[in-house]
């Protein structure tokens, strides 16, 4: 039986990361989506590890994605942050998207907070809104768990009924109250990208039950839940989806709108982390 893909890479990256990390062992990780890069200046960073220092670790080709781990503390809790992630549309095999998450699991991370920029299918959730992911629809056509199963991480067939951990959803809603920010709840639908959707696709996705659409996050959530990690997700809405607004969809708009909403998502994340002092 062949090994699951990237078995040696995951072990080598985890070892290299542990070597560079010092003594702290954060149990919580945060993946920063488009426009969330400034979070690096708002946490107390003790160690920076560029992805390039880890042998075989996937590197993003997207402009504005930095590609490094930030290790330190946020709101008092130990945290490891991923500044930059890889996407299916960059052409990487889906199984490669398992590597960062399995490296995090291997160094002791138990809770994964995923963030992204997304288009909204609801006019009552316009640009600048924050949406907590309560569930997802995987329409990317791909799955990072395809291939020989990594038995050391999780079972061949795993239940994803509660992939978006209910306790973390409660904690996020409490944090939103504390931070005074409105937090919508909704279903995130992932497409492969790289093009934005057609208006007909958006109409179809709305009928399927999606509230927001984007090009990331689901592979990471699948790999993390397979490995038994608790998973939370926040979408920062940067636009109304295709056909719902006359504004042309561009990556520049995504980055600009994410920057405008940054203060609110930062307040939400800090309140969430502050509430996890026992974690
Ligand atoms: N569609 C897909 N991905 C996105 C969008 C969108 O409208 N906005 C930000 N990321």
Write structural notes for this entry.
The chain has 7 helices and 9 strands. Helix 1 packs across helix 3 (about 100-105). It has a single domain (about 5-275), classed as 3-Layer(aba) Sandwich (Rossmann fold). The chain is α/β, with parallel strands linked by helices. The chain is globular and about 50 Å long. Hypoxanthine binds near residues 196, 213, 215 and 239.
Give me the secondary-structure category.
Answer: alpha/beta
Helix percent band: 25-40%
Number of strands: 9
What name is given to the CATH topology? Rossmann fold
**CATH first level: which class?**
Alpha Beta
Overall geometric form: globular
Distance between the termini: 38 Å
Report strand %: 15-25%
**CATH H-level superfamily title:** Nucleoside phosphorylase domain
Using the 3D structure, state the CATH architecture.
Answer: 3-Layer(aba) Sandwich
For this structure, the quaternary state is single chain
The H/E string reads HEHEEEHEEHEHEHEH
Radius of gyration: 18 Å
Report strand order across the widest sheet: 5-8-7-6-9
Domain tally: 1
Mean pLDDT: 94
**What is the number of helices?**
7
Chemical compounds bound to the protein: hypoxanthine
The biggest sheet amounts to: 5 strands, mixed, barrel
List the uncertain runs: none
């Amino acid at each position: 039986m062949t090994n699951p893909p990237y078995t040696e890479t995951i072990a080598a990256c985890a070892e290299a990361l542990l070597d560079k990390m010092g003594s702290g062992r954060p149990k919580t990780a945060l993946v920063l989506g488009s426009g969330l890069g400034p979070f690096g200046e708002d946490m107390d960073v003790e160690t920076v590890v560029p992805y390039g220092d880890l042998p075989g670790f996937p590197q993003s080709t997207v402009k504005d994605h930095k590609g490094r781990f930030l290790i330190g503390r946020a709101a008092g809790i130990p945290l490891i942050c991923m500044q930059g992630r890889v996407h299916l549309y960059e052409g990487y095999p889906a199984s490669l998207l398992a590597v960062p998450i399995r490296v995090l699991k291997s160094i002791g991370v138990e809770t994964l907070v995923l963030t992204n920029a997304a288009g909204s299918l609801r006019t009552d959730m316009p640009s600048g809104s924050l949406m907590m992911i309560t569930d997802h629809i995987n329409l990317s056509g791909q799955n990072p768990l395809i291939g020989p199963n990594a038995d050391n991480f999780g079972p061949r067939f795993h239940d994803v009924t509660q992939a978006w951990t209910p306790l973390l959803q409660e904690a996020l809603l409490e944090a939103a109250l504390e931070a005074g920010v409105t937090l919508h709840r909704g279903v995130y639908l992932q497409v492969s990208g790289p093009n934005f959707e057609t208006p007909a696709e958006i109409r179809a996705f709305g009928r399927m039950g999606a509230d927001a659409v984007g090009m990331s996050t689901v592979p990471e959530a699948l790999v993390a839940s397979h490995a038994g990690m608790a998973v939370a997700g926040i979408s920062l809405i940067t636009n109304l989806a295709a056909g719902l607004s006359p504004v042309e969809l561009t990556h520049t708009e995504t980055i600009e709108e994410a920057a405008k909403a940054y203060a609110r998502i930062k307040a939400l994340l800090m309140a969430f982390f502050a509430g996890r002092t026992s974690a």
